[in-house]
Amino acid sequence: MPSVSDDTASQPAARLALEYPAMVGILGGGQLARMTAEAASTLGVEVAILEHDANSPAGRIAAREVTSAWTDERALSALARDVLAITLENEFVEVAALDSLAARGVPVFPTARTLATVQDKLLQKQNMRAAGIPVPEFAEVTRPEDILAAGEQWGWPLVLKARRNGYDGYGNATLRGPDDIADACQTLGWPDRKLLVEAWAPFTRELAVMVVRGGEGACEVYPVVETVQKNHICHIVRAPAAGDAAMLARAAEIARQAVETIDGIGVFGVELFELADGSILYNEIAPRPHNSGHYTIEGCVTSQFENHLRAVLGLPLGSAAMVAPAAVMVNLLGTRTGPARADGLAHALATTGVHVHIYGKLASRIGRKMGHVTALGATVAEAESRARAAADAIAL
């Protein structure tokens, strides 16, 4: 499948100034949109939100909140009114919605073409492989026998994935052997839901890189970070990742190339595997701000959220350099189901050098991302000790 990196018609024109009032539209109203809105306020930019339900985390601080389905044409018109550009906070938006918005003359980033390439994981991997980016072996699943053939060719275990709408482990299944195929296919919704199968990557660490790309090829690559996952949910991000300089440079270059391959405009989170021999494999890309980049709010000269806005508005990109030797982020996950309440917040805030972010979700459930804590330090170990102490003090 050919690369899409040669499509430059959608590049945003550079802006010399913003005229106020200035507004950006966002499809989605969760914590990523909320933190984007917070960054927008420092530039004097207001935000309009389109979300399915009222009182979303971002909707409650937005200048305009539209409540409807993302495919509702009247709602899309309301979102597009008087905005300079439109972006999104997740990749589950239908491509048709982006096409509809673009047809109204509003710049939309990422573009519908970029989103279509990313949200179908089979197309995503095909494009990356065609661009020479190292990926695990993978194949389309048209029948269960395709999975069995993959196991015979690549060995077990395998990873079975839904091609669309998977996140935090939802939409994935690990197959230890042929006996797991039938149950996994049923759990993932096959044949109504399209699947792909991947060879197991024997990684030693999971890495991630935030990359922001603007008009005319301008690009900023944030430091490579190490992510620690539990039950497919990111728990800890360590910045910068330790390791051989050449290996880290390869990881950063793969991330940059991945964003260019899909003609990405805005900020993208690129997930990678580090293998025992120091080689790097591409895993997935998110066309939006990403959990592994939250540390950039306090840890970098320009946060991922501000740089995302700069990119979609055609403004110069800011530096991605860190402002301290180390930063560690710890996610705050729901510990109970019910109305949201942050116990222990005062104790956490008393911890030196800690920054607490509560996302404003009105309901908590076990394992739900409710906030995060970031700490800076002279070393990763020092920053992690502070961040863990603060995070451990909070129960949501």
Could you explain the architecture of this structure?
- This protein has 396 residues and is α+β, with helices and mostly antiparallel strands.
- The chain is built from twelve helices and 19 strands.
- The strands form four sheets. Strands 9, 10, 11, 12, 13, 14, 15, 17 and 19 form a nine-stranded antiparallel sheet that branches. Strands 3-2-1-4 form a four-stranded parallel sheet, sandwiched between helices.
- Helix 1 (31-42) crosses helix 10 and helix 3 (95-103) runs antiparallel to helix 4 (112-119).
- The longest helix has 17 residues, at 245-261.
- Residues 1-9 have low confidence and may be disordered.
> Beta-sheet strand percentage?
25-35%
Total DSSP helices: 12
SSE class: alpha+beta
N-end to C-end Cα span: 46 Å
Overall body shape: globular
Rg: 21 Å
Stretches where pLDDT is under 50 for at least 5 consecutive residues are: 1-9
Biggest sheet record: 9 strands, antiparallel
| Oligomeric status | single chain
Give the % helix. Answer: 25-40%
Mean pLDDT: 94
Q: What is the count of β-strands? A: 19
